[in-house]
Amino acid sequence: MAGAACAIRLRSLGVAVDLVEKSVFPRAKVCGCCIGEAGLKVFSQLGIRADVLDSGMPTRRWCASLAGQRIELSIPEGVAISREVLDPLMMNAAVRCGANVSMNCTAVVKGSTRDGVSVQLDQNGTTSLHDYSCVVIAAGLRSGNCSGLLPWTEVPHGPFGISVMASSADVDPGVIYMACNEDGYVGLVKLADGRVDVAAALQSGQASGAHGDPITRVRRILSASQFASIELSEFGTVMTTPPLRRSRRAGHGRVLAIGDAAGYVEPFTGEGMTWGMQGGIAAAELIASPFGDLNDVGDVWDRKLAALLRRRKRTCRLVTTALRSPAACRIAAGTLRLFPSLATPLLRSMNKA
Question: FAD-binding domain spans which residues (predicted)?
C-alpha cells in the first residue's frame, strides 16, 4: 500500500515511475483489514475513497474485552476491507495514473552511487539490470537488510502477527472487536463478503510457544474474554509474520524505505496502513521537490519520516504496552466504563491525517 500510494503521488507530480510487485493480485496478506478516519482522508488524496467505501464494510464501533470487562465506544468513520480487494484497487489506481507496473517481479538493489541506483529485476525467468535516479523500498516486514544500505537500529523482536479468515454469525457488522490478555491481543471484524478477519499479535519465544499453535492461542484469548460466546468456524489458511517490532535507518543516498520496510510497532485499527500511505505520499513529495538534491534525498528522508511519525508511534506503543499489563487494563477498563468520553482525545489523536 505504501508503494502504490507513493507511485500515485509521484505520477501526479509528473515523475516517471516503475512499480515492482513480487506477488500476483489478488492475494491474501496478514492484516487487520481496518482503516480509520485518517486512512479515509488519505484515500481521498489518492482519488479512491469512493471505491474503497463501495468495496468495504463501514465501521463505527469498537468493542473491547479488557480485564474481564466489556467496553464499547463509538469511533470515527472507518472501513473494514480485505487486502485481496484493497491492494488491486490501489494498483489499478497507479496504472491509471501512468505508473509502469510489473507484477510477479522481484527487485534487488545491486548498488548505489552519487549518480544513481542499480536494480536487478527478475520476472518470469528473465533477469535484467536497470539504473534509476532514486529507489523507494516498500517491501513490508520481510524487506531484509535492504542490501546493507539501510541497517537496523532496532532488530526485529517482540510479538509476531497472525491473520486468518473465518466464518461467524456472532460477529456484528460495523464493529471492531478486541480481546486482550498477557499472551497478546486478538481483533475480529466482519468484511463486506461476510467473512470474519481474525488478526492477532501474540508473544513470541519458547515459553509463549508452549501455549500451543497460533489458532489455539487465539481461541484461548477469546474464550477467556467477554467474547467467549462468539463461535468461529471454517478457518482459512493461517498466515504469520516475523517478530513485529523493529526500526531501521529509513534512507541513505538515493535509497528510501517506506511503510513497514522502514520500521514497525504494533498498530491497531488501521494505523499501520495509514502510516504507510502517509509516508509514501510524503516520500513522493520530497523526491519531486524542485529544491531537493537526490544525492542526499535518503538522508533527508530518514530525518523527515522520524519527525512525521514520532508522536503517532509513541502513542501507539504506549497503548499496546498497556494492553499487556493486567493492572493497566483494569484501570483503563474501569475508567472507560464510567467515563467513555475520556477516549475521545486518544481517538482524535490516532485519526489525525
Answer: 2-289
> How deeply is 213 buried, as exposed, middle or buried, from its count of CB atoms within 10 A (0-12, 13-18, 19+)?
exposed
Residue 231: its pLDDT value, please? 96
Nearest to 6 by CA among 110, 93, 85: 93
Domain extent for 211: 2-350
Q: How far is CA 285 from the centre of its chain?
A: 21
| Residue 6, Ramachandran bin (φ over 0: left; ψ between -120 and 50: alpha; else beta) | alpha
pLDDT digit string (tens) for 52-86? Answer: 999 999 999 999 998 888 989 899 899 999 999 99
Q: Is residue 193 pLDDT above 70, yes or no?
A: yes
Handedness of CA 268, 269, 273, 277 (dihedral sign): negative
DSSP β-ladder status, 69-80 and 57-66: antiparallel
In this predicted structure, the answer to whether residue 345 has a pLDDT above a threshold of 70 is no
Q: How far apart are CA 335 and CA 156, in angstroms?
A: 34
- Number of domains composing the chain: 1
| 78 to 31, 236, 274, 291, 296: CA distances (angstroms) | 15, 25, 12, 36, 37
Q: Residue 303: pLDDT above 60?
A: yes
Please report, for the domain that includes residue 136, its CATH number.
Answer: 3.50.50.60
Report pLDDT for 261: 92
Q: Hunting for cell 537488510 — which residue is that? A: 145
The model scores a pTM over 0.85: yes
Locate 288 and state its grid cell: 519531486
